[in-house]
Amino acid sequence: MFIKEFFIVFPEGDIQEIRGKLPFNSLVDMNGNVLRPPLPTNKMIVFKVSGIKTEEKTGVSGTYHFLDLLSAEELKEYL
Fold this sequence. Notes:
Shape: elongated
Number of strands: 6
Structural class: mainly beta
Distance between the termini: 44 Å
Strand content: over 45%
Low-confidence stretches: none
Order of helices and strands: EEEEEEH
Number of helices: 1
Helix content: under 10%
Largest sheet: 6 strands, mixed
């Protein structure tokens, strides 16, 4: 049996398991859900997937999505 696991890695280093793979450069919320522009406001906590790394061990594959926090100013272009 082969297990696939997916995680998001916050800028501070905290790791959280998520449901599936995220596209590179996608905008996500704190739970790893993809957000589609236009965003309702620039006053939300939004991360951008800046890197993806997959580690494989016997029977397990772990994909890590590294996130960058976007500022309110950076979010204005997604409104």
